[in-house]
């Protein structure tokens, strides 16, 4: 069977097997409340990352941070996305996914509070806690979607992705105006994002009382780390994510250095992220219409690089056109990275393990991009040299994507324990 035909199958029945294993059905008494909870939780998976960048210049000036230390500040949360991702299934097995999501939402709120309240130490410690929290929740939500909305998994995954992008866009665009509203206080502007985290926790609380079925049989997947295709999927995930977090962390600072105000730079980033909604939904659908995904990967990566170089070098009067181009590219690169995990897997168990590898290793790799931009800016005193970072990462992502986009399966399978 062609791998493309597996996408719908895996989304519709992520936990099925072919040997009569029994599953306890998931019991969701109020699905509308679960949907609302999922949307609100997903909206909190990016504000801690995208809210800081428009205020990074003010924060750096207030605390005396060098560009390299500011780069470390943008790197820490991304690094934690990868380092803490493997903790999610361990916690879920011990306490249940719903309870873990609730507890980690509260941890996320604590990290946001710490980041905005205790100077430089709190800024770094809170960023670490927030990144770890996002990494854990991000691994758990797709599994909940697949379990409780098995026959609507495609639509619910689209809703989940849209909510995630919307949260990022709102934080990027609203944080600077909020800081002005609160008396030009960057700490209160950053601290505001504790509010949606607590609202999400309140809506999610009823889910901890639901009774959900558990898989009766344990599976293991061996050999992914020795599989070249698995590494190509992982490298594509990591490299495209690296460009995304460079955008979250540094593009507003680049635009401010080119003459925009902090509010204008934040709005440009917010608008670019909103545009991602279009390509995030359409790129995977278009990519699965052809024989493989290689052409789609090249197209979205070229759009991304075009938008980045336009924001960096093109006349500032045409900024919004480049921001839109960047958004179209990055929405496609991210959604294709998630799609490749499913298409390159023979069954749902392989997909789950490939997802863990791609996110754990990929996001850890992605964290090096924002750090490299900060260090290079510190060395050169300008932003022009960062174009080399964009180019090297983008070309690397295309090379990895050309391998990952082939109509093949990773050479492993799942087996019962």
Could you characterize what this model shows?
- This protein has 417 residues and is mainly alpha-helical.
- It has a single domain (3-14, 27-416), classed as MFS general substrate transporter like domains (Growth Hormone, Chain: A, Up-down Bundle), CATH 1.20.1250.20.
- Helices cover 74% and strands 1% of the residues.
- The chain has helices at residues 6-12, 31-43, 47-50, 56-63, 67-83, 87-95, 97-117, 119-148, 153-181, 186-191, 194-204, 228-257, 262-287, 294-313, 319-343, 348-366, 368-380, 386-404, and strands at 219-221, 414-416.
The low-confidence parts are 1-27
Strand order of the largest sheet: 1-2
What fraction strand?
under 5%
Oligomer: single chain
**What is the first-to-last residue Cα distance?**
26 Å
Protein name: MFS transporter
GO molecular function, one term: transmembrane transporter activity
Organism: Pseudomonas trivialis
Keywords: Membrane, Transmembrane, Transmembrane helix
């Amino acid at each position: 069977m062609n791998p493309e035909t597996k996408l719908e199958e895996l989304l519709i029945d992520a936990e099925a097997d072919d040997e009569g294993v029994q599953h306890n059905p998931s019991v969701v008494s109020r699905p509308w409340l679960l949907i609302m909870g999922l949307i609100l939780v997903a909206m909190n998976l990016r504000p801690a990352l995208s809210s800081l960048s428009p205020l990074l210049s003010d924060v750096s000036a207030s605390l005396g941070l060098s560009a390299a230390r500011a780069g470390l500040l943008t790197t820490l949360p991304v690094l934690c996305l990868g380092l803490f991702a493997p903790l999610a299934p361990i916690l879920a097995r011990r306490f249940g996914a719903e309870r873990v999501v609730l507890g980690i939402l509260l941890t996320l709120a604590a990290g946001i509070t710490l980041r905005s309240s205790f100077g430089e130490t709190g800024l770094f410690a809170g960023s670490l806690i927030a990144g770890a929290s996002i990494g854990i929740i991000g691994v758990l939500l797709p599994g909940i979607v697949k379990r409780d909305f098995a026959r609507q998994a495609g639509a619910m995954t689209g809703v989940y992705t849209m909510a995630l992008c919307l949260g990022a866009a709102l934080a990027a665009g609203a944080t600077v105006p909020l800081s002005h509203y609160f008396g030009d206080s960057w700490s209160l502007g950053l601290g505001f994002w504790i509010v949606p985290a607590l609202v999400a926790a309140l809506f999610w609380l009823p889910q901890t009382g639901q009774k959900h079925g558990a898989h009766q049989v344990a599976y293991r997947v061996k050999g992914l780390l020795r599989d070249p295709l698995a590494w190509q999927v992982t490298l594509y995930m990591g490299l495209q994510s690296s460009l995304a977090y460079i955008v979250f962390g540094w593009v507003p600072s680049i635009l401010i250095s080119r003459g925009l105000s902090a509010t204008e730079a934040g709005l440009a980033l917010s608008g670019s992220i909103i545009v991602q909604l279009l390509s995030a939904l359409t790129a995977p659908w278009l990519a699965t219409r052809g024989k493989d995904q290689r052409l789609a990967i090249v197209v979205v990566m070229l759009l991304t690089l075009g938008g980045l170089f336009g924001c960096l070098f093109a006349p500032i009067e045409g900024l919004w056109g480049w921001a839109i181009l960047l958004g179209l590219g990055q929405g496609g690169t991210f959604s294709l990275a998630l799609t490749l995990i499913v298409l390159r897997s023979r069954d749902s168990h392989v997909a789950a393990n490939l997802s863990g590898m791609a996110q754990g290793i990929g996001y850890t790799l992605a964290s090096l991009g924002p750090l490299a931009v900060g260090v290079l800016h510190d060395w050169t005193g300008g932003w022009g040299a960062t174009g080399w970072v964009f180019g090297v990462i983008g070309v690397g992502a295309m090379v990895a994507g050309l391998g990952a986009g082939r109509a093949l399966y990773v050479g492993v399978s799942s087996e019962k324990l």
